Amino acid sequence: MPWSTEQKQMTRERILGSAIKLFSARGFDNVTINNVMQEAQLTHGAFYAHFSSKNELYTEAITAATKHSILANAQEEDGCENLNVSKLIAAYLDIDHVQQKAPPCPLAFLATDVASRDKEVRLAYTKVYKDLIYTLNKQLNHLPSRSERALALSALMIGGVAISRALDDEQAVNDLLGACRKFGTELIDGSDAGT
Prior knowledge:
The chain is mainly alpha-helical. The protein is built from 11 helices and no strands. Helix 1 (about 5-25) crosses helix 2 and helix 10 (about 145-165) runs antiparallel to helix 11. About 35% of the residues are buried.
């Protein structure tokens, strides 16, 4: 009996969920299709009914990860037009996000990994990044230099999490996340950071 469209979609989502988790934790080169399928509790052969290659899976995982990210959760809670950026900053620059207890953001978790991938992967990453900038820009429209503030805020958020993941010193991680939260909040409050 053939699978229904709904069953196929659910299987595809399981594969993508596995891929997001594993790629975010290990990077592209340290994850095999077999690893992804084992994590999803599916057979290796089922993979090719949904994706033509590991590269295609990686590209789609970048986009799919945004649907469950901290930003997506914040937009769902507050509404896209009334996003509480302070709350977003606090949740994004939190140790639970760094430790993947919260859904990982592909921008922070895959930043260095994506840099060495092909054009399709980089295009997917770029689109996700531009979507973040667009969202931040909309929320900061009452501030002078809002575009620059959105770019700086994105760098604080993504860089803060990416660097925190690489550090092996709990105090240094807490200090970094705290500093990024502080200056991120100053950017959205309209004050001049550091004064």
